[in-house]
Amino acid sequence: MYGATKDSNTMNAAALKTLMEDYGEDVWNYAYYLARSRSAADDISQETFIRAYKYRDTFRGEASVRTWLLRITRNRWLSYRSSSFIRRVTLQAHAGRSGSSPSAEEVFLQQSLSSEVWKVVLQLPRNAREVLMLYAHYGLSMEEMAGMLGISLSAAKSRLHRARQQANEYWEKEKELNRS
Amino acid sequence: MSKLPEEWEQQLKEKPFEGMNFTPQMQKKVEQRLGGYQPKRKRYKILAYAAVLLPVMAMLLWFGYSGLEPGKLAGRITPLVSEAPPPRETGAADFSPLPPAIAKAFQAMIMRLASAAFIMLKSLSLLLKTKGLKY
Asked: Measured between CB atoms, does B18 come within 8 Å of chain A?
């Protein structure tokens, strides 16, 4: 889709719309698994497409469009996280979590998660859930993953190995909980 | 729930959420925010300015310097210090290594070289500046 528009070095409104329809969910899901917040994922995914449109000339075709968009999503998330406003709000949100009733986020997860395995991934530390998602869900190669995360190939491999181990542990715990 | 690790990894290929989360409303918001967006062409703008301004500046410098005749300005104003007598009259040795005509020509050449070097440096710095620009 984007290939045709890339050739002429332009991305018109129709092409942007197609891009959002094709990759909107991928971008949103990745943003959600990074931020673990729906509102953050909404903002980050929108910002991602705005960035992609503005900086469309930077797409050199070395990676797939999806990988390029995921990279932008990650950068948007990093800047979202580093903003002091977000930090303050997050701290307040954590401090306010004293009640036993499930939060809107938890209700959303209970209703929308397609399988238990995604719940397990969501419980993992950020580094682990990110590599698992990129590798197992988006099917990125080790080289692509290392490039996106800004780490060496060996570091990416060891991170994935650790993530798998952690996911196994969490998966076993989840099984135990379900049995009991 | 008794899944092998390979199986749970296989499950990760499926979508994590049922339904759509990147809604058409969000798509519309993106389109609205990009509605009046025009890509900035700073690089080309600066290059266009440089292409016009640099030759003009060079010509101004060249003609400005050509218009200056040594001694012309000095003739209009009464000099505070009178010209020194030739060394032959005073008996002092003449240490001037070059004849006056050659010295003047040499000075003019130096001035032209300096202005050319200035223009070149200026254009180089402008070009470097534009290379580093992102839009």
From this structure: yes
